[in-house]
Amino acid sequence: MGGFSRSCRGAVVLFAVLVISTVFVAVSGQGAVVPAPVAPPPLALVTPPVQAPVALAPVALPPVAPLAPILAPAPAPAYIFPSCDGVEVVYTLIATAEIFPNASTPAKQPYSFEGSVTLTNKGYSTLDMWGVGMTFQHNEIMVSADGLSLEDGRAFPVNVSDGAVLSPSPPQALRNSIETAGDATKISKVFNIIGTEFGEPLRPMPVTLNITSKGYNCTKPKFYGNTTMHTCCVEPSQNITLTSDDIFLPPIPGDITITYDVLQAYTSNYRAMVTISNDSPVGRLDNWNLQWTWQESEFIYTMQGARPKVADTQVCVGGLAGKYYTGGMDVNNAMSCSVSPVISDLPLEKTNDTTIGNIKYCCRNGTIMPAVIDPSKSKSAFTMNVYKLPPNVDDALHLVPPAGFKIGNGGDATSLYTCGAPRLIAPSLFPDPYLDYSTNSMKTWQVSCNVTEGPRKPPPKCCVSFSSYHNDSIVPCPTCACGCKANPQPTCSANTSAMLLPYSALTLAPENRTAQLLAWASILHKPVPNPLPCPDNCGVSINWHIVSDYSNGWSARMSLFGWDNVTHPEWFAVVEMPKALPGFEKAYTFNATKIPPTNTSFVVQGLTGYNNYLLGSNLVKTGVSVLQSVISFTKKLTPGIQVKGRDGFPTKVWFNGEECAMPDSFPTSGALRMASPTVLGVFVLLVCTLFLDPFELL
Ligand SMILES: *[C@@H]1O[C@H](CO)[C@@H](O)[C@H](O)[C@H]1NC(C)=O
Ligand SMILES: *[C@@H]1O[C@H](CO)[C@@H](O)[C@H](O)[C@H]1NC(C)=O
Ligand SMILES: *[C@@H]1O[C@H](CO)[C@@H](O)[C@H](O)[C@H]1NC(C)=O
Ligand SMILES: *[C@@H]1O[C@H](CO)[C@@H](O)[C@H](O)[C@H]1NC(C)=O
Ligand SMILES: *[C@@H]1O[C@H](CO)[C@@H](O)[C@H](O)[C@H]1NC(C)=O
Ligand SMILES: *[C@@H]1O[C@H](CO)[C@@H](O)[C@H](O)[C@H]1NC(C)=O
Ligand SMILES: *[C@@H]1O[C@H](CO)[C@@H](O)[C@H](O)[C@H]1NC(C)=O
Ligand SMILES: *[C@@H]1O[C@H](CO)[C@@H](O)[C@H](O)[C@H]1NC(C)=O
Ligand SMILES: *[C@@H]1O[C@H](CO)[C@@H](O)[C@H](O)[C@H]1NC(C)=O
Ligand SMILES: *[C@@H]1O[C@H](CO)[C@@H](O)[C@H](O)[C@H]1NC(C)=O
Ligand SMILES: *[C@@H]1O[C@H](CO)[C@@H](O)[C@H](O)[C@H]1NC(C)=O
Ligand SMILES: *[C@@H]1O[C@H](CO)[C@@H](O)[C@H](O)[C@H]1NC(C)=O
Fold first, then answer.
1. What are the tens digits of pLDDT across the range 276-311?
2. Ligand nearest to the CA of 130
3. Is the C-beta atom of 354 inside 6 A of ligand 9?
């Protein structure tokens, strides 16, 4: 092998078939949502009641199920809690009862329970957004919660054995005593929760209790008696806030923000515009899907600029809508009656269709790019007519936005993004294009969505390998970087580190590299694990190869391989290299640009009509699908940069909006150096995107 890289030069690019469009990206850090640690469960009943508990006489509630003896009609004695400068949260168990079925073992016996949660703002600041967090211990199923909904959008009944965060929908502020002269109705809120638990006949209490508002620090909850739990959440600052009843919250940033504008309101229906904006320089949505849950059984009668996936009209026809909307309106024609509709974009052809398209920013087949690449493609918008149901049909200003927003890439709304609750913000202004006059929306809510982090983060779809001219081994993508197959053939180990690769293996599909890996391990005298480590299973892999390192500059070659049968049109990648970025000069056969605000990253995209489509190898007749370009850097602005150390390698890479898995280590110096293999040397010349530049050859 080896030695024919020059034959690539000027080779016809067999595969750069494709089309149109110019793009470009921008940068920056992600808003990571780091959950605060959950308070440890209280182990003991700590403070005894200060006042004598008031009469404990059981309250005679009707049994929940016919067979149900009421087991714990817990009274709520008036405890005196310690003083709290902030928000006080009290959970009181009201009742439990045995319910059907009669289980064979006590641990499986279901019981209903009812509890109340009281929040009281005893602090200086208004609590503008809040959620109450609880974790349980008896496999609780929550059945209802008094005007609150689960912050993650799941609908009742819901398995909350992993914990639950409940927030009011629409959001309500908990105002402070100072601005309301101590108006208890405005500083306090009580809500009841009803649910089912298993195996605890008397006292199914939560183990943790908190509020999720930013900056508030809740103490470990304490028991008062057996059925009351108390916590005090200290506010972040004791600045006095004065707000009006109809407060507008400040918009908050997010990787994706969704605005829900009510444009016109009538008594029984309203017209709304929904705008999805990609505010992240690294994010991308393809074939977006938006889902929400209506809070008052509203339904969508018409929609322009997008469409729901399912009409579900039987819900309207058979329900209250069918009874109420008789006469002029036929609910059979409703666009969607689903309580949690899934909405997706329209294809390009509908852009100018005056019946279903014709909305600014509509109809791009669900692709949303970062604004740095193309501001006109960084939003999607659609409008809809929403009909309300009794008893909410008499007041045009009774407007409740849907909750539980979810947005994802393709298919069902996925877990790629995690969205917060809608926040009432100052109404959007719509400037008249010709006159110095703006109309505003009646009400505007904003939803902020960030890339999901933590355990619910979906696995990556791309991975990165590192190599350098000074080391003959490639530091590979990690084992199972993009997930493991359920029953891999041949059997492989998901826990063993990936083996070093020879350059010649780079152009083989990851599952076809076994012979090369074994041969290379034997040359390097490295042990061979049995079974072999699993492949990375990534559809796209990216190799970053340091090509040269001189006193005044250095260069690297970035190669993208598509391994599956997916085509990535108008691909882009964002490369984060904080140390090296000041010296970034240019890419030779890609379009690469620094992303201005952060100065840690640059965005790379293919050149229109040349290499802006990355094909999957299954889609090409022979060889592999690879796109590559050399990228050059100067050292003038980065004196002392350790190119061959870490500084010459990216810290993070995103491909088409998703973060790629990174290798665990870097190529070291002084390793065995074989007879100058080159990556290009083994390419099956499907694609040769190399242009000539001084650093081209290894
Ligand atoms: C490179 O990307 C920038 C930013 O998107 C764009 O303005 C420019 O036209 C692109 N150049 C080429 C040659 O595609
Ligand atoms: C998204 O991240 C931003 C910070 O980057 C944060 O202010 C915002 O609250 C986050 N949104 C959600 C829904 O967590
Ligand atoms: C449930 O079953 C047990 C025995 O299987 C019986 O003793 C008990 O009375 C039953 N409980 C009710 C409420 O039917
Ligand atoms: C509050 O409780 C919820 C649910 O148990 C938990 O997920 C969250 O991390 C807690 N938040 C804080 C700040 O402790
Ligand atoms: C609720 O979820 C937990 C953990 O996921 C599971 O163990 C439990 O069986 C579930 N309960 C029900 C009733 O599905
Ligand atoms: C929360 O309060 C506890 C106890 O007062 C304190 O130890 C802890 O540092 C506080 N945490 C934060 C994030 O302020
Ligand atoms: C709490 O429960 C224990 C054990 O069941 C009981 O002895 C005690 O009297 C109860 N305390 C109160 C205040 O009800
Ligand atoms: C509270 O007020 C002080 C002084 O006016 C200000 O510096 C600080 O930023 C305020 N804190 C918050 C959280 O608004
Ligand atoms: C829609 O109309 C605009 C302006 O007339 C035109 O430039 C565009 O190509 C049309 N789009 C489609 C998909 O027909
Ligand atoms: C539109 O998106 C779908 C799904 O992602 C894709 O299969 C189709 O090829 C796209 N159509 C166009 C014209 O890009
Ligand atoms: C792996 O090797 C087999 C047998 O040579 C070949 O049929 C297959 O196409 C290869 N896979 C890829 C993705 O190149
Ligand atoms: C991609 O290839 C796999 C098998 O290699 C096949 O099952 C799948 O249907 C193909 N998908 C498409 C979109 O062609």
1. 999 999 999 999 999 999 988 899 999 999 999 988
2. 4
3. no
